[in-house]
Specification:
Distance between the termini: 55 Å
Strand content: under 5%
Radius of gyration: 19 Å
Structural class: mainly alpha
Largest sheet: none
Number of helices: 5
């Protein structure tokens, strides 16, 4: 595969990663708004609290799944770029980003778990 095609795939994957985070971000924003305005607190009905936790978990699972797939696919593009000779400056830059790609994916998983844990503690302690 040519460098131009690989860079296009890379860009498409970046756009997909960004778009895949819009719904979970909106969901977390709604939960944050409910908690900060006092509509979702420790005294809220147990069923509603569990529903909110379930939404955050579901959003997190789908979000993390999309991110892991995107990181895996991005790593494949990087490996393909590294196999090519005479890369452009952009191709070289992308091919050097494997470590930051994996670190971003790992950080994303950690932050998703953090969101769940903080909400759980807030609602149930």
């Amino acid at each position: 595969m040519e460098e131009k095609n690989l860079i296009q795939i890379w860009n498409d994957q970046r756009a997909a990663r960004i778009k895949s985070q819009l719904a979970p971000t909106l969901l977390l924003s709604v939960v944050l708004a409910l908690t900060t305005t006092g509509h979702l607190t420790k005294t809220t009905d147990q069923t509603l609290k569990l529903f909110a936790i379930g939404l955050v978990i579901a959003g997190g699972v789908f979000s993390v799944t999309a991110m892991v797939a995107a990181v895996r696919d991005g790593a494949a593009v990087i490996a393909s770029l590294k196999a090519l000779k005479g890369l452009s400056p952009l191709g070289k830059s992308i091919s050097k980003s494997a470590d930051s790609l994996w670190m971003t994916g790992g950080l994303f998983v950690v932050l998703s778990l953090f969101n769940f844990v903080v909400l759980w503690i807030y609602l149930f302690r």
